[in-house]
Amino acid sequence: MHFRKGLRPVQPTNTKDTTKVQYRMVWREDQHGGLWSVSRGDGTLWPAPEYDSLNFFAGQPFLTADGRRGVLVVQDIPCGLLCRNAWYYVEE
């Protein structure tokens, strides 16, 4: 709950960083029907595109409470109920 309260959506902007930023999965949400589970991420890397080419379908950028950049990636699965997965990736 504290993790989600600390997130702040931001607009994707160009970065002046010359190094490529790596994002690791820190949280995962699974919503299927009436069940909802939240777990820690497995630490996998997200193949991040350049920051200026982020779009809503590739990932929604956010800032964490400590100022790190992150990306929320959502996958909606067609079904008769609410079926979606959400992965929260935060820069290293």
Question: Describe it for me?
Answer:
- This protein is mainly β.
- It has one domain.
- The protein contains 1 helix and 7 strands, in the order αβββββββ.
- Strands 1, 2, 3, 4, 5, 6 and 7 form a 7-stranded antiparallel sheet that branches.
- A hairpin with a 2-residue loop joins β2 and β3.
- The relative contact order is 0.31.
Structure keywords:
92 residues, mainly beta, seven-stranded antiparallel β-sheet, 4% helix
Uncertain spans: none
Task: Return the average pLDDT rounded to an integer.
Answer: 77
Total domains: 1
Largest sheet: 7 strands, antiparallel
Along the chain, the helix and strand elements come as HEEEEEEE
Helix content: under 10%
Strand content: 35-45%
CA radius of gyration is 14 Å
Count of runs of 4 or more consecutive helical residues: 1
Structural class: mainly beta
Q: So what's the overall shape?
A: globular
The CA-CA distance between the termini, in Å, is 21 Å
Strand tally is 7
A few lines on this structure:
Strands 1, 2, 3, 4, 5, 6 and 7 form a seven-stranded antiparallel β-sheet that branches. This protein has one domain. With 92 residues, it is mostly beta strands.
List the helices and strands and how they pair.
Elements lengths: L1 H4 L2 E2 L13 E10 L2 E6 L4 E2 L13 E4 L5 E8 L6 E9 L1
